Amino acid sequence: MLAALTMALPRFAHAYVDPGTGSMIWQVAAAAIIGCMFYVKRVAAWIRNRSRLRSQRVTGFLFACAFALIASPITATLFHDHPFPRFNDLFLVGIVLTAYLFTWEGSAFLLLIALLVSAWVLPPAGSMRIESFADWYRLASFGLLSVFLICLITRMKARQTAESAESLSEQRAVPMHGIVASAE
């Protein structure tokens, strides 16, 4: 009864919380979301086939627009008081997903939208004026990181496509050599 009464009465907790814990939890949550989002590729392919959109470029732009329409109000609401550094994290996830699932053009379009939304949110809010050097630096570093990731993912996709085409040609070439050898 004493334990229940102790837990029922509110008291101030004077406990130590490690300052890096929140950052670590954020990174684990972001990694889990990013890991799960790579399975979106199957869903995106299914939607593309159902809607008869065969072009990855068009679906990439549609995905980028939909992502921006959903992510902009969410990030503006969640991070209104402290727009950086976590404000662009959600957009960075969208940029990486668009580059991975579709083409680099859609992800570059989403990067442009993210930069415009960031400029709109930065103080003085709603003016598209960036006054401090720190804000310019944050926008530039976000833009450079995004361009780097877009190029990296595009290169990885091109290498994967070349390797799969090469292995397919090798698979087709092996039976041909066997047929030729047996005919001789």
How does the overall form come out from the CA principal axes? extended
Number of strands: 0
Estimated share of beta-strand residues: under 5%
First and last CA, distance? 94 Å
Strand-and-helix sequence, N→C? HHHHHHH
Write up this protein.
The longest helix is centred in the last third of the chain and has 51 residues, at 133-183. With 184 residues, the protein is mainly alpha-helical. It starts with a helix and ends with a helix. It has 7 helices and no strands. Helices cover 77% and strands 0% of the residues. The chain has a domain at 56-162.
Question: Care to give the gist of this entry?
Answer:
By secondary structure, the protein is mostly helical. It has a domain at 56-162.
Key descriptive features of the protein:
mainly alpha; 184 residues; 7 helices
SSE arrangement:
Layout lengths: L1 H7 L11 H18 L2 H11 L5 H23 L10 H13 L2 H18 L11 H51 L1
